[in-house]
Every structure is written in C-alpha cells, then in structure tokens.
Amino acid sequence: MLLLENAPRLDLDQAASLTEELYGIRATITLLPSERDQNFLLTTEAGEKFVLKIANALEERALLEAQQQVMTHLCRYVSICPRVIPTRSGAFLAESQSATGAHHFVRLVTYLPGTPLACVRHSSGLLRDLGRRIGQMDRALATFDHPAFHRDFHWDLAHGLRVVDEYRSLIADEALREMIGQLAADFRRDVRPLLPALRRSVIHNDANDYNVLVATHRDTDTRLEGVTGLIDFGDMVYSYTVGDLAVAIAYAILDKPDPLASAALLVEAYHGEYPLTEAEIAAVFSMASLRLSMSVCLAAHQQRQRPANDYLAISQDSIQRTLPKLAEITPDSAEKVFRDACGLSERSRTGAPTKAETLAARRRVLGPNLGLAYKEPLKIVRGWMQYLYDEKGRRYLDAYNNVPHVGHCHPRVVKAGQEQMAALNTNTRYLHDHINHYAENLCATMPAPLSVCYFVNSGSEANELALRLARTHTGQRDLIALEHAYHGNTTALIDISHFKHSGPGGCGAPPWVHIAPLADTYRGLYRNGPEGGQKYARHVMQITERLRANGTGLAGFIAETFPSVAGQIVFPEGYLAAVYACIRDAGGVCIADEVQTGLGRIGTHLWSFAAQGVVPDIVVLGKPIGNGHPLGAVITTPEIAASFDNGMEFFSTFGGNTVSCAIGLAVLATVFEEDLQAHALAVGERLLEGLRGLMNRHAIIGDVRGSGFFLGVELVRNRETLEPAAEEASIVVNRLCAQGILLDVDGPYHNVLKIRPPMPFSETDADLLITSLDRVLAEKFGVLRGKH
Ligand code: PMP
Hints:
Strand content: 15-25%
Helix content: 25-40%
Radius of gyration: 33 Å
Number of strands: 26
Bound molecules: 4'-deoxy-4'-aminopyridoxal-5'-phosphate
Strand order of the largest sheet: 15-21-20-19-18-16-17
Distance between the termini: 69 Å
Number of helices: 23
C-alpha cells in the first residue's frame, strides 16, 4: 500500500496569479494545513472566502471529478458541504503546470465558516448535531455513486486490519503497539463476522475533528451552536456506510471522560436521521477504535517515510491517551449502550445462553461443591488488566484476583502464548531453549543456593512435588504445617491443610501431620510485643522436641510467608527465621509456599520469604507465574535435587511444556519491565493509608494489615472481643459487587476482606475502592461519631 506523495508546492504568489488567471478572482492568500492537497485560503476585497485546492499530481483525474460531482450532489441536500466554483471557461476541474513544469489539478470551492471541532468544547448538543449532520449526509449519499470511489484506499475501514497488520510493528511505544494488536485481535474475533451484513455506499470517510467545522455560542456571528461545515472530500470511498459515523465518533470521543456516553449522543442523533441496522449498531464502536488504531499505524508509517510532514501527528497524543480507555470497553457493552440510545430492545447478538441458563447448565453437569462467588453469581465473559466484564458488558473493578498477576489478558502474555502455540507445544523430553531460559530467569530471582527448577501445572502439584522432595531428601515422612493453612487440593495436601481437614467435610490430620498455631498478632495466642515471633516459634520447637522424644524423624515445615487463606496474615518479625532454625536443627527442610504471595505482590520484595529474612530450601510457585495459564514451579537447592534423583524419573506430561514456558517468560518480563513490584508498593501504601483512615469512621473495621497488593481488612462486631463479623463481611462484598467492585472474604471466620488485585490496579482504582467501601459500610452499619 503506497501513501501518495505531496503535491508539488506552489508559493503564495503562484497561487494568487493562478486564481486570477483561472477564476478571475483577486484575493489575498494564505496557506491552509492539509495532508495531501495543497490548500490556500482566498479572501476577496468584498470579504468573500474561497479555498483553492491544488491536487496532488498523482491524484487521478477521475477521482477529482468524482469528488466534484459528489459535492455538487450533496449541496442539493445538506448545507454543510462546500460548493465547487467553475473556472471562467465553466470547468469544475482545471489543469495547470507549475514553474518547475509539474502538472497538477486545480479546483476552487466555497469556504465554510466555523472553528474546527478539535478546537472547541463539545457540549452534548454539539455532538448530537454532528451525529445528525453525518446521518443527513449519509442519507443523501445513498443515492450517489461513482466508479472512481470503488478503489483500494489505505484509509478505508474495510482495510483497517490490513493497515494495522502491515504497520503496527513501526509503532515505537511498545505498550501502544501491543494494545493496538489486542484491539485488532478483538476486532477480528468480535466484529469481522458482522462486516458482510453492513450496508455499503459512497462515504465521506474523514469527518475528523479538524474537518468538521462548528459554530459555538461564543461566535459573534451566530447564536446557534452546531456544525457549519464538513470539508476535505479527498478520502471518499465506497465502503461500509456506517464508516462515516465510526470516523466521526473516533475523533469526537478523543479525551472524553466517558467516551461511550459521548459516542452514544452521535449514534442516537444519526439514527434519528438515517436509521442504523442492528449489525451497524453492533459494529460501529469497534470500527471507531479501529480507525484510531489505523491513524496511529499510518502516522508511524508516515513518520518513517516523511519525518518532516507532521500532519498526521496532530491527533496522535489525544489518540494515544484515548485508546487505552476504548480498549476497556467491550463491543458488547458498546452495543448495549447504543441500542439503548437508539431505543431498541435488549437482545443478545450472539444468541449465547442467558446467565440463568448458564447457571442451570452448570448445576446439571458440574459437581455441586464447586463454589460460586456472590449471592447473585456473575457471568464473566471477558477480562482486561484489572477489569472483568459480564455478559451484558458491565465492567467490574477486580480488587482480589491475584492469578491474573500482570493483568487479565495482558497482551504480551496472550501474544506469547498464541505465538508459541502456533509454533510448537511439546513436553520436556526434547531440548528447547524456552524451558532453560525460563528456569534461568526464575532462578536468577532467587537467593543462593536455590538454583534448580521443576515445572508442573498448578500450585497443588508444586506442593505435592515439594513434599516428595522433602521426604526423599530427608528420608522422613512427618511434616509441620500451620493452623488455618491451605496448600492444595490433592489427598496429601488436604492432609496438611488445616483449613480443609479441620473444616466441613474434613477428617482431621493424619498422624504424620503436626499443626502449629498460626502466628497471627491480631487474634492469635500472642497479640502484641516484639517477642511475638519467638513466642510463636516456640510452639514449632515444642513439636520438634516431641517428635525427637518419640524417635520420629521430620521431613520438613511448610508455610506461606504471608498466610492468605488464613486471613491475610503478616507474621511477626523474626518468626520464620526462628522456625527455620529449629526445623533444620531437627533435620527437616523448610518449604515456602509462595503460590499466593510471590512475584512482587507484597511490594517490598519479589518473593515474600525475603521479607522475613529467610532463605527456604524449597520454594513453591503457582498462580501468578502463569497469569492464569496453569503453571506451577518448584525451586530448590542442587543438594535436594541430587537426593531426589534416586533412580525414579520425574516427569509431568504438561509441566514445563513449550507454551507454558513462553507464557512464564512473558509474565516475568512484564513484572520487571512494567516495574509492577514498585507499583504494588506505592498503590498498596495508598490503600493501607485510606483503609486505616476508615477505621476512624467504622467500628466494624478491627484491623487493616498487609503489604503492597496483599492486604486484609478484618471485620469484627466488637473491637475488644474480636467477635468475627462474617455476615457483615458477606453483605459488604455482595454490595460492592453490585456496585461494580469485586472483593472476597477469607480467614477461618470468613470475616477478612481480601484485597489482592491484579498488579495494574491504579491509584484511581484504590481511591474508588476506599470511597466505595466507606459508603457501603456507612450505608449498612452507620458511622462512628468522634475519633476512635
Ligand atoms: N498454595 C496456596 C497457598 C494456595 O492458596 C493454593 C490455591 N489457593 C494452592 C497452594 C493450590 O494451588 P492450585 O489451586 O493451583 O492447585
């Protein structure tokens, strides 16, 4: 695809004499900005204004004639188009030669008054008027055609995906490049199937905010606010009719706080003039996003070809600010809003089962103890960074899912998985560089001597393997674990998970499992004082002494460094150091379950065991390292790995497969490149401060604890007795869910709000969470008077 070169440049004197010669008009002349044509503004002594257009010499005559004809056609029906002025000899299109001998076409059109839409504040009325005018124009264009407009043109939305595919790699900003790739992929999946159903006609194709002229209340010559002109007919093409509306929307929503609401004003008004079809309503928002993506891609291309021409650069900043917002809006939600704006009834475009049908089917075919969050279950169909979207396109702020660590559907991770899946996905029985790189990169983040990796498919599998490693290395079976802990869903892991085996349906711990009290300084055995860590560690020591006295050996100790299921607990200082020393003294190994807390979540450290100043013998990784892809890992010392190599082969069919490693690598790189650990620390501080501030207003908040994006808010009925406020916690999370914020409860008494969002969770999100929690608590449980 070739962008046309600039027209041969005329200077002002040459343009003036040309005007006089061809049109008999004497006028003062200034140059107007333009991408392709050279445009001059002429002002006669009588104050009449015209635009002299010198067309690119490469522009086909037929195309210019088509433009002249369409303008003449439109002038019969709408008032916002320029009129073509004939030459003295009656021609609408003149030919001329410049001093350099270059050949070009000349046209003169009436000048339309007004300020570019880009330069004024956009009231709702103005945006509606724009929609109305574009609708009127498209209605008029429905009865016009010209063969020259049936052309292959790079600004045609019908070629949008092609443009993005061809030039996206030229975009320097990586995040922008990725986002545009994601938008294009979404378009391909959600909108391309609709395209064959869209109406086609000749369209203007360039109602951008510099081509739309408006009068505002401030203008002295008119009291009426509205569109006064639409200029630049150089991009006209036979394409999707709704393309005109899409282009107008694309530029009208730049830098808007609520782009969808602004777009709906145009859609509603357009529909009033020239009714849209259902498929057009479904497609138009994504087409607007695609147009902006095309603009970024073509600007990058043009920048390469002609660095001096900055015409396309004019909108790039606002496009780049706006695109991320558009990326958060699903086609479904846009469709719903637009259908509402057009007064159409609600209907699922895809014909997908309703939420009730999905729930009923789930009950039929899935095990009944597969839990569902929230009283009114959510049907989530899409995710993007810290947001989830339901089947109706409603957006939810995800404040607790820690698996989509670098963000739901992070484009870099998605791309890594897609590309590797298309290239190869096989097991560890062949040499491949991905698994080596991934293991090297993971081990590089660990302190010595943790330097050997095993890959599996889940946190449970990783903990199972950790158990086997500990047992094989020590030749012992018994394990010490903590009260209220959860380590996974296999038989052995239920045995060591106090939260499960001592809860409903559990059968208690088998004899080889020894449970130590949870070092919880809020409601545990020891609540205050610098000695807390040592005091809790002494209970572990008592177990090791008892085992020793019984002549029972010890395989090891397992704990999360910040116990999560136990209620977002932060151990007292020195606890793990003292425990690890006593375990090693008893001949056991120390296992750190970092499944929930790893990879920068706590903000201060990449791995949370470092916050306790310890180095485990075995580290277990899961959830975040695959960002939702099933990926688990165990990292241990060469010594333990050597013991494990006892003749029995270790193999996992899927563990360490090529796709998983590509994804793991992408997640790890994203954490570092986006500096997510520091981000978690900074936004986490803001959350902690805000949540602690709420304690002054809400007696129900007994404790706020944690670090980075690993936070707990413990709700109690009484700050002295610490009676757990479980029902209240459930009311709060359900109420917040209804308001579009997702949280959940944890802890043995189900009274701790867990806040562990995807890492892109922003300061604005933090503020929203705090004010929403404040409002819900006030509304449900009242507010404290005075300071507490
Ligand atoms: N360890 C901890 C601390 C966990 O929280 C979990 C899961 N919640 C697991 C292990 C088990 O991981 P998975 O569900 O991936 O098997």
